[in-house]
Amino acid sequence: MKGPTATDGRGTPRQDAVFVRRPLRTLDRAAAFQRRRRFLEGGLAVLIPLALFALWELGARLGWIDARMFPAPTTILRTGASLLAEGYFWSDILLTLRRVLIGAGIGIVAGFTAGALMGLNRTARAALEPMLSAVYVVPKLALLPVFITIFGLGEVPLLVIISVTVFFYIWIYTMEAFASIPEGYHEAARSLDLGPVRMFTQVLVPAALPSVFVALRVAISVSIIVIVASEFLVGTTGVGYVIFDSRRLFMNDQMYVGIVTVSLMGVVLSMIVQRIGRLVTPWVKHSRRID
Amino acid sequence: MRVHLDDVQTTADPSSGPTAKISARGIGRSFGTGPGAVHALGPLDLDIGEGEFVSLVGPSGCGKSTFVRLVAGLLPPTFGEMTVRIEGDPPAPIATVFQGFGIFPWKTVLGNVKFALAAAGVERRDANERAMRWLARLGLADFADAYPETLSGGMRQRVAIARALATEPQILLMDEPFAAIDAQMREMLQEELLTISQTERRTVVFVTHSLEEALVLADRVVVMTARPGTLLSETRVPFGRPRDTRVREGPEFGRLRVDLWTHLRDEVQAQMAGQRGGTAQATL
Questions:
Q1: Chain B residues within an 8 Å CB radius of A195
Q2: Is the torsion defined by CA of A42, A48, A49, A50 positive or negative?
Q3: Domains in chain B: how many in total?
Q4: Which one is predicted more confidently, A129 or B266?
């Protein structure tokens, strides 16, 4: 800040510059900018897919694309509504859901058990890790014929393939999580003289849980992929079967209904897992989550 | 943890220093085996009396923390013997405050303290009341339901102290509890620890890098040599009790600090030389 007697180089008095420091309204402006920005981003997120759907609709109606191959979105919606009204489709959805949930349930329990055991016990890890790691890289769908040979046709091979898929994700993340629990937590727990049950349930499991939930979200998405493919390969029911059967019968609108249904199932299941994760690991900061 | 204590109690010679709460005779510890083994501590003789506040200082890697872990029973010694005398059979005779990771991020502040009490077998309703009392005492009452992640380092360490003290241990072990805390908060915590330890005298073993901290808090400062850590010097701190952190302003304090540093400097140099020579392993 210049003094009131400042002069320029020639010694003649000139107008003083006076800087007044007081709070500006920039903070308000920044907040308004943020609001506008959020609004814009939210709007774009909705508008762009809507625009694409509109383009698709227009294209199908005006004959730019073959509406028999790519039925208009409104046609797909209408077909979907009538399929749901008829009721057959519901049973396919429920069957697929049931397969995913039962299969994933078995896979989660088995994967968590194996992961915890191998993460905490070096002998168990040494004994089982090489074998499991080798099987880990095998595409699980390639094992479907084996499961059919063993379990015959029907529900069991489908449940098994989902279980196996989920098992490997949960197992590997859980093992890593348990093995990398900081020594400090072990020591703190031992200094409190915890018994083995408290040690496991109150210290080791919570320490590992955030990673397990990351695995769970991945596993659920992948098991949707696997069930759809498997239902196509061996099934006579389920959403996956509907998709491929519709295509075979050249009922493309019905095929798209199946595809949309599968996507929605994936989104909803993944969201449910995420919500449960937030509920049971409330101490994890949002920024550190993968979402 | 109990196992190690019991082992020692049965082999202890009852005549060796009946007043000593902790009595180490030729105690030592190595890590690893074969040519890669690191001899971290000992042989060390050290008696710590009932109700005494002892500070351990020494260069990095001299086995101070190892000594604390031996007292806590978190590690068994490699050689020598240590007697830890506990009056009666309390469920949680020893509590430890660690530098980091001591409190669990998945439990709230209150949850952390109650957890320790539950592990010590304190009844639920009792535990709640006791936990709240100690949280209030450390100025944490308003944060009882917060998760540790949302607190500053200084407050988190207060949670750890509250948790350790809530179990009302006979021996309190503190392993560089204030090392990761900024200087101002550190002085506040020293003050609080002084007040608490002077209201209810209990045996405290306090590991620190700071000579000043050692002198402010302790009845006796034990300086250890570079690895393997053995006893270098012992200084009885002449300031009476109750005292407060203003003792550091007197001329006597400065003189003591210089004396201690004179002892310690050669050891720190020796430790640095060892590191340059490549023989030093990770800090133990």
A1: 119
A2: positive
A3: 1
A4: A129
Whether B138 is covered by a domain: the verdict is yes
Q: Do A184 and B92 touch (CB under 8 A)?
A: no
Residue B150 within a domain: yes
- Rounded to an integer, the average pLDDT of A152-163 is 92
Domain that holds residue B145: 103-169
Report yes or no: B147 and A283 within 8 Å, Cβ to Cβ.
yes
| Sign of the dihedral defined by the CA atoms of residues B13, B167, B72, B224, in that order | negative
Both tokens of B76, joined, read 């068994």
Q: Take residue A36 and report the two structure tokens written for it.
A: 């506008």
What DSSP line would sit under A138-207, residue for residue? S-GGGGHHHHHHHH-SSHHHHHHHHHHHHHHHHHHHHHHHHHTS-HHHHHHHHHTT--HHHIIIIIIHHH
DSSP B122: -
For tokens 């090392």, the residue is B179
Q: Is the pLDDT confidence value at B1 over 70? A: no
Would you state the pLDDT for residue B281? 42
The reply to whether B263 falls in a domain is no
Touching check for B102 and chain A: CB below 8 Å?
Answer: yes
Asked whether the predicted pLDDT for residue A150 surpasses 90, the reply is yes
Least confident residue range of A196-210, B1-15, B23-37: B1-15
Give residue A18's pLDDT. Answer: 62
Cβ-Cβ contacts under 8 Å, B149 against chain A: 283, 285
Mean pLDDT of A137-164: 92
Q: What is the pLDDT of residue A22?
A: 58
Query: B106 and A281 in contact by Cβ < 8 A?
Result: yes
- Cβ contact A172:A215 at 8 Å: yes
The pLDDT of residue A202 is above 90:
yes
The structural domains of chain A, with segments of one domain joined by +, span 1-65, 73-288
Average pLDDT of the segment spanning B52-59: 93
Decide if A147 contacts A157 (C-beta within 8 A). yes
- Catalogue the E-assigned strands of B50-145: 53-57, 79-84, 94-97
Mean pLDDT of chain B: 85
The interface predicted TM-score (ipTM) is 0.71
In this complex, which of B95, B98, B120 lies closest to A184 when CB atoms are compared? B98
The superfamily in CATH containing domain A73-288 is: MetI-like (1.10.3720.10)
B282 lies in some domain: no
B124's enclosing H/E stretch is helix B124-137
